[in-house]
Design brief:
Elements lengths: L1 H17 L16 E5 L5 H17 L7 E5 L7 H17 L6 E6 L24 E6 H9 L7 H12 L1 H10 L4
Parallel strand pairs: 1-2
Antiparallel strand pairs: 2-4, 3-4
Helix pairs in contact: 2-3
Length: 182
């Protein structure tokens, strides 16, 4: 199963994140050895917290050349979006308790990601949809450097919504299903 999970995540990165330019900073890391994809196959909350803390520790102890960023996926747990959001809140608290909130930022992705106030079938949800529940651990300094060289970074979410709306929910759903064929 592990190989298929990583393959699905890599396909999602290729086809959605980079292919649709949803994250303009992701392209250089796509095939790089310092992009870490870590899997926590546990279903127990305590074990998932430990996995998060281990990844957080590994990232902050490693150089950017060794690990630039980490995608921590939970392929066997957190299927319910509300459960995922609860765990994400716990992860954010753990980050704060560790005193690493100035060093690491969390981004969230889930197969059923839904923005509050948006229609259930809104194309915009695909900007944060991933094949599995994922917490992305980003180095704050890398993000700051990337944003310095980017024109109007505050417009990224709006551009993503425009791109996704132009494609449309039906086509996005078709592309989404194609990620899992193989």
């Amino acid at each position: 199963m592990t190989g298929h999970v990583v393959d699905h995540i890599r396909r999602w990165l290729d086809d959605f994140v980079v292919g649709l330019n949803l994250c303009p900073f992701a392209r250089p890391l796509l095939g790089a050895p310092n992009l870490r994809i870590a899997l926590c196959e546990d279903t127990d909350i305590a074990a998932m917290r430990r996995a998060f803390l281990l990844e957080l520790d590994l990232l902050q102890r490693s150089s950017e050349q060794d690990i630039a960023t980490t995608l921590l996926a939970f392929p066997n747990a957190l299927e319910d979006f509300e459960d995922y959001l609860d765990f994400l809140e716990d992860a954010q608290d753990l980050l704060l308790d560790a005193g690493l909130d100035a060093l690491v930022q969390l981004a969230s992705f889930h197969p059923d990601y839904r923005f509050a106030g948006e229609a259930a079938d809104a194309a915009s949800h695909y900007s944060n949809r991933a094949p599995y529940p994922i917490i992305h651990l980003l180095r704050e300094d890398m993000l700051t450097r990337a944003l310095e060289d980017f024109v109007e970074p505050q417009r990224i979410p709006d551009r993503n919504i425009e791109t996704l709306n132009a494609i449309g929910s039906e086509e996005l759903a078709r592309r989404w299903q194609a990620l899992f064929l193989s």
